[in-house]
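Here comes a specimen:
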Amino acid sequence: MFFFLQTLCTTVIFCIVLAFQETLGSPVFVGYNDNQKEESSDYYTPPQYKYDYAVHDPETHDIKSQWEHRDGDLVKGAYSLLEPDGSMRLVEYTSDKEGGFNAVVSRSENGNSKSSGPSYNSEYF
């Protein structure tokens, strides 16, 4: 028990001395340089990106693709996929601040393309 107390006291004293030494050894800067001008730069750039990908696996019938381009607030893109009935679904979309999100969905069956209803337009997206 005596050894434990002796070790504890030694450790506490060492920490106090170390903290006191660090405080005294720290450099102190006094003054203010009024002549320096702070330069501010605006690093904002409108977002821009382009990507696309495709999967074509005849064994699992996983056939799909997608692309999208963004330039500032305007986003354009499309994706397609093979439906279980063998038709291909194509969704083409645009999105911007004024018009919101707009999508046109079409299906092609055996090379024939037909629209599957009106385009989707929502002011909430």
User: Anything to note?
Assistant: DSSP finds one helix and seven strands in the chain. The first strand starts at residue 48 and ends at 57. Residues 2-25 form the longest helix (24 residues).
